[in-house]
């Protein structure tokens, strides 16, 4: 199962970089409890204003942009250009798409950004439906 997950993730990265110019694909967990699904995305360094959560009939889509703002660092000024000695932190546009199961209540989806984690709760329809 692990190899399939890795392959799927590799395919997602290739699609993201070729279809919309994305250079970064946040990591995602999807968990299921009795009453809901919980989608968690790692979005460190992303301002809440750079996160967009959209829901349509079949998909949950999270898009936005992460840019490291060097001018906000105490040691830099607005006009300084940093000289990198090492650069591993990806930035740029991102897009995550999760196909929604058929048993979800799309009208009551909620999202919260907590310590760099975007937690999206997708409730299931109650058994009465």
Describe the structure.
This protein has one helix at residues 2-19, and strands spanning 28-32, 36-42, 51-55, 59-66, 92-99, 110-114, 117-123. The longest helix has 18 residues, at 2-19. The strands form 2 sheets. Strands 1-2-7-6 form a 4-stranded antiparallel sheet, with no helix packed on it. A 3-stranded antiparallel sheet has the order 3-4-5, with no helix packed on it. Strand 3 and strand 4 form a beta hairpin. Mean pLDDT is 79; it is low at 14-22. The protein is elongated. The two termini are 33 Å apart. The chain has a domain at 28-67 and 89-123: Immunoglobulin-like (Sandwich), CATH 2.60.40.790. Helices cover 14% and strands 35% of the residues. With 129 residues, the protein is an alpha+beta fold.
List the topology elements.
Blueprint: H1 2-19, E1 28-32, E2 36-42, E3 51-55, E4 59-66, E5 92-99, E6 110-114, E7 117-123
Antiparallel strand pairs: 1-2, 2-7, 3-4, 4-5, 6-7
> Could you spell the SSE succession in H and E letters?
HEEEEEEE
Spatial strand sequence of the major β-sheet: 1-2-7-6
Task: Tell me the total number of β-strands.
Answer: 7
Helix run count: 1
Helix-residue proportion:
10-25%
The helix/strand class is alpha+beta
Report the mean per-residue pLDDT as an integer.
79
User: Which sheet architecture does the biggest sheet show?
Assistant: 4 strands, antiparallel
CATH class of the domain at 28-67 and 89-123: Mainly Beta
Q: Which outline best applies?
A: elongated
C-alpha Rg, in Å? 17 Å
Beta-strand share of residues? 25-35%
CATH topology of the domain at 28-67 and 89-123: Immunoglobulin-like
- Name the poorly predicted regions: 14-22
For the record, give the distance between the C-alpha atoms at the N and C termini, rounded to a whole number. Answer: 33 Å
Please give the CATH architecture of the domain at 28-67 and 89-123.
Answer: Sandwich
Oligomer: single chain
Family: Belongs to the small heat shock protein (HSP20) family.
Keywords: Stress response
Biased composition (Basic and acidic residues): 1-14
Pfam families: HSP20
